[in-house]
Amino acid sequence: MNAAFRAFLLLLLLGGAAYAQRPVDIAFWHTLEPPAREALEKIVADFNSRQRDYRVLPQYVGDLREGGIKLTAAIRAGNAPPLYYGEVSFVSRAVQENLALPLDEYLGALPGDFYPGLLEAGRWRGRTYALPVELHLPVLFYNADQLASRRLNPPSSWEALAAAAQQLTTRSAKGFIVVSDVYSFNAVVMSRGGQLVREGRPNFTDAKVVQSLEYLQNLVRSGYAVSRNIAEAPFAMVDFVRTKVFMGVAPITVWPTLEKRTPIPFRLGVAPLPRTPDGKLPLAGGNLMVLRGASEAQARGAVALWRYWMEPANIAEWVKATYCLPLRRSAQPLLEDFYREDPRRRVVLGGLEQAALWAQDPEVTLWYGFLEEALERVLKGGANPRQALEEAQRKALTVERR
Fold first, then answer.
1. What SS3 string covers the chain?
2. Which of 81, 127, 192, 213 would you label with 60, given CA atoms 20 to 30 Å apart?
3. How confident is the model at residue 362, as a pLDDT?
4. 284 - beta bridge partners?
5. Alpha carbons 258 and 141: distance in angstroms, whole number
6. Are 248 and 134 in contact (CB under 8 A)?
7. Cβ-Cβ contacts under 8 Å for 24 (sequence gap 6 or more)
């Protein structure tokens, strides 16, 4: 065997070894805005640097709605990513459409200190199809300076909120802001003991749902609240910061985004969402979902990323960036200084016992548009709440029967 041939064989062997060691690429589409986006990218970069089996490639694809449109187009074109960051309400729909891979066989045994119920955000009918990473509850944000100037306490009931909105309203500002999207409305409904969905079917005409919409319409009609529709929703935050409104309901994860985008020219107040004794708090947020078409290696890599993400130290850093719920109890000691530094951040933890998934029925994604149309007609156009909800329910049931 001459020297040239031996060199050729050596090159083949080295090339084969290099190929065998090349990590499995996992395209990862997500919808997270700063500062959560930077925190996610850091977790992914650290994961990639600590092992050689997988390389996760994160890509921002717009907000939840934009991301959903792009994902639908990619699925139709046959080039969907292996890994997608999906809102918890999307899980059951993805299962029904045969888009999500079951992940139980890759998970193995999990630590026993996950908070009860939080892992259910990724399960459907007893099987795991998504892995929760960023779960949150809504809170009441308020202008603490304005409430203090009127000697008002943060309202702990919806009746007290209406009274506070009245006292806060001036010629140039409203006491409260109402956003007519399905999540915001559902937060009011659930906190008042109602349900938008019952046994998998739209429940818009239920008395508590109707009463919730009547309550919001009365606030707007009385001049104590301003309504923003879906297209105007991004301006709700601007209204609050510019002191055009003094109270509003939003997920606690809005807080770091709010502070990062603009200085807040007043003391920010954060309080639990008003709730009746039978009320619940809607648990929402994002999951990692492995889509059909992903290889077994890519599915294992996605689970490995999630396990790394769920290490207590990483959860703690993630919570500090996003203000979301810590999924494991073992992360709590690492967050004590964070909560002690600003006790307002602890508000969301008090709602864990009252938390329930805000939507887990696959049909929700088909008919929530009808509900949002009804909300806008009522809150912007002054339509009768019961009649608008009845019409939305008829449309929803028509889609359901197709």
1. CCHHHHHHHHHHHHHHHHHHHCCEEEEEEECCCCCHHHHHHHHHHHHHHHCCCEEEEEEECCCHHHHHHHHHHHHHHCCCCCEEEEEHHHHHHHHHCCCECCCHHHHCCCCCCECCCHHHHHEECCEECCEEEEEECEEEEEEHHHHHHCCCCCCCCHHHHHHHHHHHCCCCCECEEEECCHHHHHHHHHHCCCCCEECCEECCCCHHHHHHHHHHHHHHHCCCEEEECCCCHHHHHHHHHCCCECEEEEECCHHHHHHHHCCCCCCEEEEECCCCCCCCEEEEEEEEEEECCCCHHHHHHHHHHHHHHCCHHHHHHHHHHHCCCCCEHHHHHHHHHHHHHCHHHHHHHHHHHHEEECCCCCCHHHHHHHHHHHHHHHHCCCCCHHHHHHHHHHHHHHHHHC
2. 127
3. 67
4. 136
5. 11
6. no
7. 53, 54, 55, 295, 297, 298, 301
Distance CA 232, CA 398 (A): 29
| Cis bond before residue 35 (omega within 30° of 0) | yes
Q: b or e along 256-288 (b: 16 or more beta carbons within 10 Å of the residue's beta carbon)?
A: bbbeeeeeeeeebbbbbbbbeeebbbbbbbbbb
pLDDT tens, position by position, 158-212:
999 999 999 999 999 999 999 999 999 999 999 999 999 888 789 999 999 999 9
What is the model's pLDDT at position 400?
A: 57
Q: How far apart are CA 184 and CA 23, in angstroms?
A: 42
Q: In Å, what is the CA distance from 2 to each residue of 15, 64, 265, 297, 371? A: 20, 62, 79, 40, 79
Residue 27's alpha-carbon distances to 3, 209, 291, in angstroms, are 43, 41, 11
Residue 249 CA, chain-centre distance (Å), reads 14
CA dist., res. 262 & res. 369, Å (int): 31
Burial class (CB in 10 A: 0-12, 13-18, 19+), 145: middle
331 near 319, Cβ under 8 Å? Answer: yes
What backbone phi and psi angles, to 5 degrees, belong to 318?
-65, -45
Residue 4 has a pLDDT of: 56
User: pTM of the full predicted structure?
Assistant: 0.90
